[in-house]
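Retro notes (design track)

What went well: tokenization of the new backbones is finally stable.
What didn't: we kept losing track of which sequence belonged to which structure.
Fix going forward: every design gets posted as structure first, then sequence, in one message. First example under the new rule, 566 residues:
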């Protein structure tokens, strides 16, 4: 007998704030690159499959940056160094610093999936490798035309598969292969601007039609449980070392402020406040849930291991995964109106880490069979709700054709499936009685990564970063209470602090991450803190002149994605 299953996809879209507020420039290009590749591809697949529903989670600071790029293109004042290089009229007159940026940045992608398939781009890499082996002098012989071709190919390779299929300009430039002119690059620049300008309106249109639900994250992606209580790390890691600072000053107020800013952002952009929130890194604690409930959120979500740890803490049985995972939960006290869903880590990680090596149709069929089997395991009269939650941007560069065939096959099969009902959390709550939520007496604080906070706290590098942030927050509180800043100066300092509170800096610190990535985020974190002190009209501590973390030469671990289990 067929048993139905409710399936919710939550695609999480996030990039940290890469802007240097003092200069207005973007320090790293990942926001606009993911916009022309992943955000465009993901919305394209949803547009092609109107029967597929999904939750798309946009972190407000990502939307801030996308709108910043839209403004840059509208005013023809590019503040991203890599875009400025692409738009450069004469690459023969570049400075050494500009050449270094082009050569460093334009090979930083998945070589197998994003360089090797394009012979002309591959030749550029092979020539660079040969000359690099001969030293700096040899590299200086690379011509201006080489740099122009390299910059062009880098941006062509970052265009999404849907972009290549739907827009003739990209195909024409790829066919040309080399010798790209200034006019070629100007056309590509204008086209990139059109793609980015269309991102938010395309998702908004799907939300207005009811096909997708757009959710949010507290505005600058803070690790809320740790801001509220650094010691919450010990819930899942009792022996982990903590920072020297006993707590983050007024952390709960800061989390509330990030939530309120996100609600304001969402209402401005999408016409209403979000029904639910995916907290940064799926990180929750009892106090975090209390803040979300107090701010009117109807649903939130976290990782499967957080649920397991919470059930153990509540002394509830764990003998049958199918019986405890696929249902919403509510706290017994203090979180009225809020229901919490928990991610199927296995299914989510199959998409994030395994299916990129499979044939698209085989992967889609395997996934659907797994979901259907969950329905067969359900108790009589129960309809399980399966949560598949992962980031909607970083996995696809490991797939052939940016995951085009996998997503197309998956959505095609789900659109017409008799057993699997694909829905959103908002629709699920509207159609399912709230009494079906299981009660939890307590929550074990943790995240979707390993069920704990080891990715953000506990190592010497991460703890050092927390101590730097805590000291800066003490200075912030002191200056704000002194009335020495004007209203505009206070707003600037507040925005700068928000950026410093992002979870992303702590994610990258640690010797399991590649050194070049750690260096970029380390510089930006320390610059952000230094800029905060400047806005507070205080001298920055000398410790900010020294790296917090250096990373390692190991490129096999770390990076922008983590599995749910070690």
């Amino acid at each position: 007998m067929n048993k139905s299953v409710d399936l919710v996809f939550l695609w999480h879209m996030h990039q940290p704030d890469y802007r240097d507020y003092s200069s207005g420039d973007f320090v790293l290009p990942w926001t606009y690159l993911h916009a022309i590749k992943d955000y465009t591809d993901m919305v394209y697949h949803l547009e092609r499959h109107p029967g597929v529903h999904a939750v798309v989670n946009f972190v407000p600071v990502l939307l801030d940056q996308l709108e910043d790029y839209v403004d840059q293109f509208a005013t023809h004042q590019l503040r991203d160094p890599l875009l400025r290089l692409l738009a450069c009229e004469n690459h023969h007159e570049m400075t050494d610093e500009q050449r270094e940026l082009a050569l460093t940045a334009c090979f930083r992608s998945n070589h197998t999936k994003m360089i090797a398939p394009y012979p002309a781009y591959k030749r550029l890499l092979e020539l660079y490798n040969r000359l690099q082996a001969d030293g700096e002098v040899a590299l200086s012989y690379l011509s201006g035309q080489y740099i122009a071709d390299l910059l062009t190919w880098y941006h062509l390779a970052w265009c999404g598969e849907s972009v290549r299929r739907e827009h003739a300009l990209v195909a024409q430039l790829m066919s040309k292969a080399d010798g790209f002119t200034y006019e070629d690059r100007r056309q590509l620049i204008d086209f990139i601007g059109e793609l980015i300008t269309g991102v938010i309106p395309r998702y908004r249109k799907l939300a207005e039609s009811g096909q997708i639900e757009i959710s949010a994250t507290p505005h600058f992606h803070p690790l809320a449980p740790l801001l509220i209580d650094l010691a919450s790390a010990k819930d899942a890691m009792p022996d982990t070392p903590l920072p020297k600072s006993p707590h983050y000053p007024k952390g709960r107020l800061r989390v509330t402020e990030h939530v309120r800013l996100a609600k304001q952002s969402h209402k401005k952009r999408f016409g209403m406040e979000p029904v639910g929130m995916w907290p940064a890194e799926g990180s929750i604690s009892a106090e975090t849930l209390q803040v979300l409930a107090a701010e009117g959120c109807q649903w939130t979500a976290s990782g499967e291991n957080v649920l397991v740890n919470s059930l153990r803490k509540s002394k509830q049985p764990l003998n049958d995964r199918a019986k405890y995972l696929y249902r919403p939960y509510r706290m017994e006290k203090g979180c009225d109106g809020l229901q919490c869903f928990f991610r199927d880590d296995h299914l989510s990680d199959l998409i994030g880490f395994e299916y990129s090596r499979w044939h698209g149709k085989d992967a889609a069929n395997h996934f659907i069979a797994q979901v259907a089997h969950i329905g067969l395991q359900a108790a009589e009269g129960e309809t399980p709700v399966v949560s598949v939650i992962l980031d909607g941007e970083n996995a696809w560069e490991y797939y052939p054709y940016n995951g085009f065939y996998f997503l197309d096959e998956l959505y095609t099969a789900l659109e017409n499936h008799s057993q699997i009902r694909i829905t959103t959390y908002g629709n699920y709550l509207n159609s399912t009685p709230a009494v079906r939520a299981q009660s939890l007496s307590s929550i074990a604080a943790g995240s979707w990564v390993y069920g704990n906070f080891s990715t953000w706290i506990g190592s010497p590098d991460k703890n050092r970063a927390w101590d730097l942030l805590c000291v800066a927050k003490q200075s912030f509180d002191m200056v704000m209470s002194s009335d020495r800043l004007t209203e505009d100066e206070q707003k600037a300092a507040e925005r700068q602090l928000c950026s410093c509170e992002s979870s992303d800096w702590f994610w990258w610190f640690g010797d399991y991450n590649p050194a070049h990535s750690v260096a970029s985020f380390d510089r930006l974190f320390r610059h952000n803190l230094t800029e905060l002190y400047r806005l507070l009209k205080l001298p920055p501590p000398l410790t900010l002149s020294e790296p917090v973390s250096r990373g390692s030469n190991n490129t096999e671990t770390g990076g922008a994605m983590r599995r749910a289990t070690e």
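Added context from the reviewer: The longest strand covers residues 5-13.
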